[in-house]
Amino acid sequence: MIHPHGGRLVNRMVSGEEREGLAGQAGELPTLALNQRELADLEMIATGAMSPLEGFMGEADYRSVIDSMRLANDLVWAIPVVLSAKTDEHKKLKGGDRVALVDEAGRALAVMEVADCYEADHDYEAQMVLRTNDDAHPGVQYLQSISPIYLGGTVHMIRRPEHRDFTRYRLEPKETRVLFATKGWNRVVAFQTRNPIHRAHEYLQKCALEVCDGLLIHPLVGETKSDDIPADVRMRCYEELLERYYPRDRVVLSVFPAAMRYAGPREAVFHALVRKNYGCTHFIVGRDHAGVGNYYGTYDAHAIFGEFDPREIDITPLFFDHAFFCRTCGNMASTKTCPHGKEDHVFLSGTKVREMLAAGELPPPEFTRPEVASLLAESAR
Amino acid sequence: MPHDPSQMVTLKIPRPLYERLGQLIEGTGFRSVTEFATYVLRDLASQPVSERRAEAAASDRMTEAEVEGARERLRELGYL
Fold first, then answer.
1. Of A194, A199, A236, A261, which is the active-site residue?
2. Listed residues A132, A157, A182: the one ending a domain
């Protein structure tokens, strides 16, 4: 089984007497209410999905990640995982203090041992991580919405966030690792997506499955921008297709709880490293992975992996060019495998698909299987 | 960046150890002792501080009970 990033699967869940003790203390501590992204991050840290992180980043890790895509200990890590202060009281917290991390209902989920409290430069962070300061970029908008005062420190999770959705699809890294081992899969490829599945995605997944033992379809269900297709619709599309077109014994559908950063290339590295923690050995990186608008080049998310020694990343990225149905070839293909021109290719942008659905039209079957088109049309009504 | 020679430094280790490591990496995929040493040192450097190493080592592997608990949940959810 592939090793977790950093060599050890982190577990910051506490149980038994330790949990009872911390839960009791939490009531006496200052509280900090997490936003949706931070809630998802907390759960992923606690369950080991973000190994080797044991808490929200302190200043040394934060600055190192921004400047060099490495933690302070030199391990590759491409995006900041930070906790922002919510009140003036939080800004007075210092190393050695403890704070209770609570959800929006005020339930204590974790206790954090504060290591440091520091001021971020959001303009610099945006430029380095998102490659832009444009107000229209959703990642920039997120930074503008939070305090630049960050708190770093290890966490002890005493209660999981409450989930009412996708409960049967929520697997922790320990569980996917046991699952893959039990199935006898040595080579497992992960597919990350925040979009509904189209024929091109299916093509990528099945090409990858040809050279691997198993496929983990891992749709992101954390916070996304408002005009992305909702996660429940995307999951229904997957359920429909898996039932009809995928080999049941070779594919696992589970949800990825993270929020989207829309950080393009850097987020592609993050997505790959995290899937290693789930036990995957390969990771599909398509065109404009984790991109938004025109902020990133089509294959920037491929190129960034070249900045590291492959052994540092360890999980193997599988790079795919732009895929489509070619009328002349009569099959799915990519710019790498098809000699014909764009006029032969059936490909629609997300914007075009949304326009068609809004007008009551269904995308053509060469682009989207009819079962998925129907579900998308239904959700658009 | 690892490929930038100006960002690399030389570490000295005993020659017998160097030769032993050379034998150790045969057939493993490591292309050089330097590559292997960097991998191992990086792994070590990522470990928690010393007083927490015992706890970390204990949590490296799942117990049989944890594995069976995970399998039971996977069965309930229909994955197994």
1. A194
2. A157
